[in-house]
Amino acid sequence: MATCTLDDEDFEIFKKFKMQKNPTNSAMIFRCDTKEHKFKIEETIEDISLEKLTEEMSSSSPRYIAYVYRYTHKDGRISFPIVFIYFMPKGISPTIAMTYSANKQNLVNRLDIAKSFDANTLSTLTEDWLKEKLAFFK
Fold it and tell me: Can you say where in the cell this protein is located (predicted)?
């Protein structure tokens, strides 16, 4: 059951993150606080590649990641899409997995992010993986 909510204060922090004037590859990492039934911003990291980000993450803890990415299209245009990455490692507690899974869409909707991708290993989270996912969007 989807039970977590994002406080207005944290939503305002996210909006500022999303609307950066000079964007770089940046991540905002969220977690579920099951005791308070809230999404919490765990960390915001600016100017970081996906590969570097994975070095800072736990391979055994699920997380939601809002990631701003500098994307060069085939025609040379540059855009800065924001993507939602649902990181759910294999082998974690079924209760935790169900909580994160049930709340994923809640957070995607609140953040209003159109591009949402799932990953179950940190080694999946590479620039090549993200480019492949984004190639479907013109």
Answer: Cytoplasm; Nucleus
Taking only the tens place, the pLDDT of each residue in 18-44 is: 988 888 999 999 999 988 999 999 999
84 neighbors 108 (Cβ within 8 angstroms): yes
Please say whether the beta carbons of 23 and 70 come within 8 A.
yes
Contact 26, 16 (CB under 8 A): no
The answer to whether residues 27 and 44 touch, using CB atoms and an 8 Å cutoff, is yes
Cα–Cα distance measured from residue 70 to residue 135, given in angstroms and rounded to the nearest whole number:
13
Burial class (CB in 10 A: 0-12, 13-18, 19+), 45: middle
Domain extent listing, the chain: 5-134
Confidence of residue 100 (pLDDT cuts 50, 70, 90): very high
Residues 42-47: contacts with CB under 8 Å, at least 24 apart = 44/13, 44/17
Give the right CATH number for 5-134 from 3.40.50.300, 2.60.120.200, 3.40.50.720, 3.40.20.10: 3.40.20.10
